[in-house]
Amino acid sequence: MSSPCHTSAVLLVFMAFAVGAGAEQLKESSCDVIGDESSESQMERALLKKLEPLSQIRFNVTVEKGKTENYIYHFRVCREVNSISHDFRGLVQMDKQNGKTTVIGRINETQVFNGSDWIMLIYKGGDSYGRHCSGEKRRAVI
Hints:
Blueprint: H1 4-17, E1 23-25, H2 42-51, E2 57-65, E3 69-76, E4 89-95, E5 101-114, E6 119-125, E7 140-141
Antiparallel strand pairs: 1-2, 2-3, 3-4, 4-5, 5-6, 6-7
GO molecular function, one term: protein domain specific binding
Membrane topology: Single-pass type I membrane protein; Single-pass membrane protein
Pfam family, one: Man-6-P_recep
């Protein structure tokens, strides 16, 4: 069994390959991360502009490992998963067995990086692992 500290990263790689599966169009038009726009650098704003077309899609991926681990992951690029709650959840995990929701990463604690042909978002500030992983907070690397 894999360490719970690394499970999120592995699942996010899976999500990258499942882009077309379970995507739902939304009507918002711009990327909104890193708190206030005034705290974003020019480079970050340029990268977020490139991601705007993806900000209108909600990704939903179901992962099942036997009978004990059945989750649905809800993810949005640059947007809150649930815009009604206003708690900056960018990626959440929902346990299908008990309905418990765990925040993996928040958009207001995002780091943005790029290379010649890629952009990486790191959503930090997720729920704590508790007794596992020294109580570290979860994060998502996309």
